[in-house]
Amino acid sequence: MAETKYDVIVVGAGAGGGTMTRVLADKGIKVALLEAGPMLEPQKDFKTHKWPHDYGHRGAEEGGKAYFGKGQAYGFMITASGGWQLEGEPYTTAPGTKFEWFRSRVVGGRTNHYGRMSFRFSDLDMQPYSRDGIGWDWPITYEDLAPWYDRAEEFIGVTGTQEGIRSAPDGKFHAPPEPKAHERLIRAAGGRLGIPFIANRRAVITRSINGRAACHYCGQCGRGCLTESNYSASQVEIFPALKTGNVTLITDAMVRKVEVDAQGLARGVVYVDKAARTERRLEGRAVVLAASACETARLMLNSKSSHFPDGIANGSGLVGRYLMDTVGFSLGGILPSLQNMPRYDTDGFGGAHLYAPWWLWDDHDKLDFPRGYHIEMGGGFRMPSPGSFTAIARQSGYGAEIKRRVRELYGCFVGLSGRGEMIPNNQSYMDIDPDTVDRWGIPVPRFHFSFSDYEWRQARHMERTFRDLIEAAGGQVLGIGNTARERSGIAVPGSIIHEVGTARMGSSPNTSVLNQYCQAHEVPNLFVADGASFVSNPDKNPTLTINALSWRTAEYLSEEMRKGNV
Fold this sequence. Notes:
The chain is α/β, with parallel strands linked by helices and 566 residues long. It is built from twelve helices and 22 strands. It has helices at 15-26, 42-45, 123-126, 128-132, 142-156, 181-193, 233-242, 293-302, 390-396, 399-409, 453-472, 543-563; strands at residues 5-11, 31-34, 67-68, 72-73, 82-83, 92-93, 103-104, 198-199, 247-250, 253-260, 266-273, 278-289, 327-334, 354-355, 373-379, 413-420, 429-437, 443-448, 476-480, 485-486, 490-491, 526-528. The strands form seven sheets. Strands 1, 2, 9, 10, 11, 12 and 22 form a seven-stranded mixed beta sheet that branches. It has a four-stranded antiparallel beta sheet with strand order 15-16-13-19, with helices on one face. The chain has a three-stranded mixed beta sheet with strand order 6-18-17, with helices on one face. The longest helix has 21 residues, at 543-563.
């Protein structure tokens, strides 16, 4: 027997689940929100104003769980609830495959500590097949999604400037902070090379809204924001939604499957209460999966029944297919003109104040790869972390000389990172490992992944471009900066944490899993509100689009419930 029946059950308390829950709760709809991790307690969990010397690990790791590749730590994270490897929750990879799957088990998910890059997809991104004959078009246009981008940006707060660049649509922006010294040098170099660097678009408010204080550059944003100036689904959406009285939040709830009734409609979910180590059930009029692209696909594939022997809503056989991640490539350099520069606070609002959107969108006849990438930038007098001065130490030895060189070169380093579009291919997908289960007895994902020549050629273009930029700025190239890379530099799949696809939307149930409202073709009361619905993976970071799509889906779902269709 189910414990309680709700209007809507939402699985996953990240960007998509948080947006969905807030919109529905504000309409008076009763929501059960299930999160596989614990409750977030900002005052305890956030390390906003902590220093590396406050911890024995000096910021190299937090809790020993944030590992990927060969033991590389993710960084000084806000909570020990996430990582590429979680105790008792394995995943597998097919022979010859490299894939790293990051999970954030805590209310708010990855939005508690993500980079907050917030870029709209453009018309070029939404209809890519119509432009170059590769991949598929989305069943919606940029014009369909633009009003929801407006709402998302106005609610969460995004910085930026009006630029009129087709590949980077303008939005509803807060004023951005001023560029840092190293960014000005790279921007000037970009001007000479025809590469436009513009104000970064970040989900950080620079004027007070909705009771949230404007960012005042008080610390390092990756450790959590106690003033709620940075967007996180936990603080900005879920905590306020709880105050409506319309939301029941169930933490440490590992959802096992979606159950269906005699007609094949979603009846509710079965989950493991991790604390009690017991299985429980919830019933609802509708189920929304927002657990992240791979977790949602895993849940769908594990939800087998007589109606859906291959997994719920998987009549097309496309659940788990066409998995995509961002093409990542980095190059580092040193700018000698910044040596011994007077120290000043370059943390700003927690990352780069400038970025370069894709500038060759109308010049592809000169390129050997489709689509494109944007350029992110790092550097300045940011807080040193373990390994920051390894290269100097190797050259300078010990004692006074190493101290002199560190002081001289601190703030001179610059890193350029490309974030590019991956073309969906049928060699990149996830299925269920037939022999491996997690500690809760739930079968785990098995990843198959392969970049194509399109992505390798794109990475080579990034490398040439970054070298040109660093040298045009008067700098010296130090080498590829990816700590986890394969072949000649693309970051290991999954390590950028932009995985999308796996349950794409489309017009036909034969060639897609979801319709244009992220509603399952075969199960009209089942919806998806995360990156699983993506048809393509443009060079833009996915979170803002997840926010916009989830808001659009929530409005559609509430109207369908009002009409009695759900």
